[in-house]
Amino acid sequence: MRILGFSKKWNKLTNQQFTTFRFQRRDKDWEIGEQVQVVYKPRSKEREILGIAQIIAKDFCNIRELSQTDAIQDGFLDREDMMKWLDKVYKGRIYEEPMNKLTLKWVIILGDRIE
Fold first, then answer.
1. Residue span of the structural domain in which 43 resides
2. Number of domains in the chain
3. Strand arrangement of the beta sheet that strand 17-23 belongs to
4. Are 20 and 59 in contact (CB under 8 A)?
5. DSSP code at position 1
6. How many Cα neighbours within 13 Å face the side chain of 62?
7. What does DSSP assign to residue 24?
8. Residue 75 near residue 10, CB atoms below 8 Å
9. What pTM value is reported for the model?
10. 115 domain residue, yes or no
11. Tell me: the pLDDT tens digits for 77-87?
12. What is the Cα–Cα distance from 55 to 68, expressed in whole angstroms?
């Protein structure tokens, strides 16, 4: 089972369904129906397994075409806030490569999902 890591405990993680934007994987891209282990700080001593979620939808997304609604659903104040965060984390890569918009549904929830 692959890991889907988060560096922040977003409020969206309290919803039964949530979205996240990820780059296509070079080894094996994310697939609809795949179950993933959702982890907070996956490469840290503070690593915390939040649960198991299933990918229920996958859409290709040009980051320039992100809507205000997408940004807010993903946990940001607005589209501009999301673009600033993505640019800080991924630099110019967000303008060069398409991203996947993944919609996930919790299958198993372990402990608290947010602080």
1. 2-109
2. 1
3. 2-6, 35-40, 48-61, 99-109, 17-23
4. no
5. -
6. 3
7. P
8. yes
9. 0.88
10. no
11. 999 999 999 99
12. 23
